[in-house]
Amino acid sequence: MMEHDMREKAKNAMRLILEAARFEVEEVDEPLDLSAVRDGDCLLVLCSNDAELIGQFDKTNYSLMVDDHEMTCKKLLFTLEKDIVTENCTQWGIDEFVQYAGEAVLADIVARELTLDLTPGKARAKKGAGSTSSSGEGGAAEEPDQSGISLLHFPVKLSEQAAIRTAGIQGAAKLRFIPYYLIHYASSGEQVYKDRRVPFDADGWGAINAINGIKLDLDGTKVEDSEIPANAEVSDAHITKEEANERMVTELIERLTQKVRIKQEKGDAIFYEEKTLKPDRKNITVDTKQVYIPVWQIRGKKIVEVNAFTGELLSEPMDEGVEVF
């Protein structure tokens, strides 16, 4: 049996999930837990580990009368018992519960409607190619087939279905690996002008898209050297490593450059002297490696891209020739 406290917590979580999917949710009398209505559809929810109760729920037909209109109710079961199999209701286990609970939180953050798979039978949550998202965007499932191609890349944390939900459109999804130059830069040295000392110390990471030159903030410690999923597409770089290095150094020099204004007095006159101080290029070092960022590209009525590592909906494409969402 599912303990009372555990069942209450499960019921509250199921309410949040269904409300994220735009259902109007109410509690119902035992042995059931919730009813949910949306656009003429009715859903009854049971949270239980009791095989006898579940069996009764699975074989019973339920209907709801609204304004003299009778609706046949769909059924949703949440159970922690892995051996229970149903035929006439949607069955969620731990994997589905974790997936949809996380996606409900994300849907609330990005103000989007959560899409639920309510197909009767024991559902299997799909896992993002590579690993389960710590934030719940991807779901757990079988490991995807590997391509045999190893790349230095950021891991895929967003499943295909979660990416489609984030994109907000229906269409064919393609996993693509976009090349970036991940650059660690360091600057040192200083200049002294009269009584003013200007240091040029800097240390950090930067990344430049190897296709369109767009800059991105990346944490270089998150990359991994492993095989990518089969059927994924690897895009070619259009910008050379040397060009990326030159751009990074140029932008760093511009960022560290300072204008120094010194006030001087001569007799009754006061005048200011302004001088621009720049770091010496020889005091700047860059260490560059090519990495790949996974991106789900969804092609429907329009093309939308979603970062498969962060789960972020991209406001501008990572590749050339892609429609901006």
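(the above was protein one; protein two follows)
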Amino acid sequence: MSTDDIYNLLHKSEDRLSDVAAASDVFNRQFGSELASWELKFHEQFKHRISGMKFRYYGFARYTHERSLILLTPSPWLTEGVFVQFPEDVELPNEGARIEVTGRHVALPSFIERSKSSPAAIFADSFEPSNVDYLSDILPPMNLKGLSRLLFENVGMAEASKQVFARLFVSSPPFQESVGGLTAGIQAIASKTQVRRLLRFMRQILPPTLRGRWPKTRNVSGIRVSTPPIWRMDIGQPGRKGMEELCVKRHDPSGFIEVSLGALTNQETAALPDVPLALASEDFWIETSNPSQFRLPILKSAITFQMMNPEVSRRSIESGTKHILSKLEGLKESFGLDDSAFARGHLLDADAYGRPLGALRLARSTARAYWKDKIATADIKHSWDRVLEPALKEFMDLTQLKSETERDWGKDRPIHKFNTKVLRALRKLDSGGSSSLGPTLDEISTEAGVESHVAAEALGKMKDSGVLYEPRIGHYRLV
């Protein structure tokens, strides 16, 4: 059966997600359900006969190691297609550009000399950038809510945090000279083992190429073709130098256009990512799940999001930045920080490429997730007010709590086993006066916003660990 016959058997508007396991990597996926519906449409548009032996192709240019020879592919996420031989004096199209090429099928003489055969190829009589509006042919993928629900069905975590991690798969386009993508870090107030399980689960959803293991070139019909460095996700516990490259210098040494980073951070690296998060034990759990069950639908959505490049005006960026700077000043005063918190790579990072860019990245990622091609000032402000500022507040509050408890009790206390809501409530209500009996169970549970039995259990654990005492039955004081 020919390739054309296979495509004709597939329903034109259907994008099946659940009937095939995508064991292959992103650039060598097979026909049918492993491809997104828009990729199938691109295959239909790929080749047109003009007359006789003359054909027109619409595809994406991929460089090879042969001079004046490119591989033209129907999708930017595949390394199968037709080779195009250009005249020696013609400037080649940009890598990754979608172009229209007209020509006749030819054999490649230099290739025949080496291997006695030639792959499918045409000689380019003419070529030009494709003026086809291919975005109009692409159906929007899962929106942010659907993506988050699918990814984190078996994860207990605040919805806002789930949507931050879902945005890693959506990514964000490059801005000016900086690499695109989105970075999020976790400072584990919860068990680090549990957080590592979450990161491992997220990493294994993607095929090897998109999580950092890729060959620089691929063998396509005996010709070496460059692997497209479009997007990858870095998940784990990178060192400070690697995080600074992505989060501060906005540069990827591997040369990818977009890089999303999800990192387990420490005191040295916690402030670097676009969105720093702190996860407390009472809010976080993860059940064992098989990541391969999610790979195909997540992969199709992730590569589809990359096709959208939401635009933003300079005026909107400047207005959004002014709003963010005023809010940063408020955070500095609220937490009693000095001006050094605004410095490059520090907690509030008020540099032009710091938190303002973080909010812009979030806004463009959100726009992609809802298939919008433009964002306005209101979108940047919304990303700050509804996502980034609440995450920063929670992060600073919890890390401050951890720092204070380690100072008072030492680092050997199992703080990750305590209910941080109850601990924060007790620290707030305990006046510290020598004659004070301390707050009651009801006062603590009300302040913490938890049920009395939850507060009682948490206080019991803390008492057994020697971090509080009861000067009178039902009253609690911190040691």
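Reviewer note on protein two: The longest helix spans residues 377-409.
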